[in-house]
Design goal:
- With 217 residues, this protein is an all-alpha fold.
- The chain has seven helices and no strands.
- The longest helix is centred in the middle third of the chain and has 41 residues.
- The chain is elongated and about 65 Å long.
Length: 217
């Protein structure tokens, strides 16, 4: 989730590119580290034909990871729901709406939130902060999923080939996966704080629009 992501199409294009490149880099980097720990392969660059075969599995996994975003969504679902609920509750409070109404559902209230943000430069400024924080937010979620994936791969590789180096990969992967938990919580807190600042501006200058939205229920 991105707070007011639609407010800047050019930034959205860049964000989409980075969201594709970051997990790809993490997958290839993890593959290179595991190869280094086991001593069974070395990744120099996927652009060199001689090393392409060794890097191909990581590239395929990176593409599949991007094609199936459910992994990232799983890793960030709790944090995503917190940020979404924070904004939704704030908008309902400002507009005096009924939390149990259809209009109070996020998928219905989201369009008016974005429309208000797009109409106010001060809100768009906050959305730029949210976009950068959101990139870090999803990248940490990617790191968590990919680390768990490499922990599984390292375990299988160890038992299949008796590789002691794979155990190092397993330990590092587990450590990284655990370390992403407090980092994600911190970034989620920052995301909510940005949302709160947007809600404060909406409360001061755009409450009438929200009241009219809920009055039509």
């Amino acid at each position: 989730m991105q707070i007011a992501l639609e407010s800047s199409p050019m930034s959205l294009d860049l964000l989409k590119l980075l969201r594709f490149l970051v997990p790809g880099f993490l997958v290839v980097a993890g593959w290179a580290l595991l190869g280094n720990f086991t001593g069974d392969w070395k990744v120099d660059t996927p652009l060199i034909p001689e090393t392409l075969g060794k890097t191909a599995p990581a590239i395929i996994v990176a593409v599949l990871y991007y094609a199936f975003p459910s992994f990232r969504q799983w890793a960030n679902r709790r944090n995503h729901d917190e940020v979404k609920a924070n904004i939704t509750e704030g908008l309902i409070d400002i507009g005096g709406g009924d939390a149990g109404s259809v209009k109070a559902d996020w998928k219905n209230i989201r369009p008016i939130f974005y429309r208000i943000v797009n109409s106010d430069q001060s809100l768009m400024t906050q959305s730029k902060r949210a976009m950068f924080n959101g990139l870090l937010w999803t990248s940490v979620a990617d790191l968590k999923v990919i680390s768990i994936g490499y922990a599984i791969v390292s375990t299988i590789y160890h038992f299949a080939f008796g590789s002691q180096g794979a155990l190092i990969g397993l330990a590092l992967s587990v450590f990284i996966a655990v370390a992403t938990i407090p980092i994600s919580r911190s970034l989620t807190k920052q995301h909510k704080e940005i949302g709160d600042k947007q809600l404060d501006i909406i409360r001061k200058f755009h409450s009438k629009e929200l009241r009219e939205y809920f009055e039509d229920e």
